[in-house]
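[Q] Does anyone have a clean structure-token version of this?
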Amino acid sequence: MAILKFRIYFEEDDSVYRDIAIRHKQSFQDLHQAILKAYEFDNKHAATFYRSNDSWARGREITLEKYNKQYRADPLMMSDTTMGSEINDPNQKFVYVYDFVRNWVFHVELINVTREENPKIEYPATVRVEGIAPSQYGTKGLVGDKLAEMEEKYDLQSGAEGFGTEGEDLGDDAEEFGAAESTEEEI
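[A] Here you go.
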């Protein structure tokens, strides 16, 4: 059975993504649930996928339910549409929109197809996590691993290279250029 691996990027920051492995016979509803779980979102809002191209243009809709809006073509239903049926390209892309009020947008890109199923994994499964997920409602506190990840990403550890003495009183006689030069030597 084919296993599809998708990379789900947060639209506003492509350094934040989750890789999800899913069987080709599983549905878009399964992928929808896996994305919400991977990004720690609840399941209380409307959602839809769009077939897409390399420019992330939105094509045919694959929706959770039929919403009260105009469709150019009848949408496919997530629960009835298998992942494999919509893969037309080895780099297939989809746009995923969750919560039409807050408009959370994710870019979904097929990055790997394999026939080898891992018996230790229950599909769909999040197989890689990069970056701190956006908070669905307000802000999240940074604790433990997430704080360490933030410190590492932005080099926030005290005494790290790049922290200077700007704003410190260097004396009235020090020339601006000479003061900066001597400060670097002290560090």
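[Q] Thanks! Anything notable?
[A] The beta strands are 3-10, 13-23, 47-52, 58-63, 76-77, 93-98, 104-114, 125-130.
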